[in-house]
Amino acid sequence: MNLKQRFLTQSMMTLVGTIIITGCVGFAYVFFYNLLNKSPISVSMGETAIVVMEDDNIIYNNEEFSNLQIKEMLMNISVKNNYYDNGDTNYSINAENFTTSNGDKYMIITLNPVINTDDNYRSLIAFVFITFLIVFVVASTVVQKQNMKNIIIPITNLTKETEKLRTGELETAITDHGYGEVRELGRAVEQLRLQLKNSIYYQQKYDENRKFLISSISHDLKTPVTSIRGYIDGVLDGVADTDEKKKYYLSKAVKKTKLIDTMIEDLLLYSKLDLNQMPFEKEKVNIVKYMESCIEDSSAEFERENKNIILENELSDVYFVIIDSEKFKRVIQNILDNAKRNIEKGFGQLKIILRETNSSVILEFKDNGAGISKDDLPYVFDRFYKADTARAVEGSSGLGLAIAKQIVEVLGGRIWAISEIGTGASIIISLKKLNERK
């Protein structure tokens, strides 16, 4: 029941209840009045007086009217005035004549005292009106008290809480007391408060992220830019005085520009992922064939640096996963590049193990590099983390694993790392599996 229906129902119930109570009190008033006065107000009649006359002689007079009074009665009857006043009593007169078989003539005069009911009815109406007014005021007071408790006070409190929101105080929870729409309004304002608080929190977080990104990328860009300037100055100043040195200096400058390009590309990608502005096109993929294709694309680079990459398939069946092939390839490539930079030439090895759980396909990228300390392990997926080994290696933007984490989580998976110093590191990805054959 909404507030409009509630107010209408309250008004109708107050009116109907007042009428019923007033009617009951009115009937009680009439009943007890009749009982106490032994005279029905509704009939307005009392004890009848009778006078019997034979010819002009009075033979019966139960009220002992005088002859003069009886003559006045007869005079009123003759002029067709059917009322007679006797002091404070007003009578209605009725006369009947009849003759006996003996020829005797009789007249029977009946006088019914007429009670003046105007005063009685006026008092009854006044009593009923006062009763109606009192009952209506009491009922209205009760209803207004309930409305005050369930509507007015909650709205007043809500107004105060809303004023706090306007002044920026967002920590105090807004209660949802009240009735119907008032309660819903309180809940809506509380949701607004939470959303406003969250939006301010995320705005502050985005501002901090932006400042951190600007600071970090500025710091990381400074080194390659300084190197590029140094190599170019070396050529212009004649330090590189042979063609071989010039070629060497220029090749180094080109290499540094590629690093800057990689950093900028990773930064733009990370920003789009962080702001949920990167569209994903998910599809069903055979995980084994997909990983074989990714390894084939990177195997030449591993061989060129005399490092090994191995795929071990421990899956018991053909499994499919739902991923965005292009973006997940970026995840694989970032992990492979990070591992390749952290394993030694000659005996460095990256083993990719595919295994399963009841609901997931597990991809483990296990290398035999130096490993990651326990203090640094929880932060390897943070952007620009200072102890990230990828940052100490030339050609890294410091965002590879952070980008990988964002993409995996958007695809509904999980990614984490395990490692100990001296035993290598493992990056593990869990994806929901589909046990379907083509």
From TrEMBL:
GO terms for molecular function: ATP binding; phosphorelay sensor kinase activity. Keywords: ATP-binding, Cell membrane, Kinase, Membrane, Nucleotide-binding, Phosphoprotein, Transferase, Transmembrane, Transmembrane helix, Two-component regulatory system. Coiled coil: none annotated. One of its GO terms (cellular component) is plasma membrane. Its main location: membrane. It is an enzyme of class 2 (transferase). Residues 149-201 form the HAMP domain. Residues 216-435 form the Histidine kinase domain. SMART domains: HATPase_c, HisKA. PANTHER family: SENSOR HISTIDINE KINASE CPXA. This is histidine kinase.
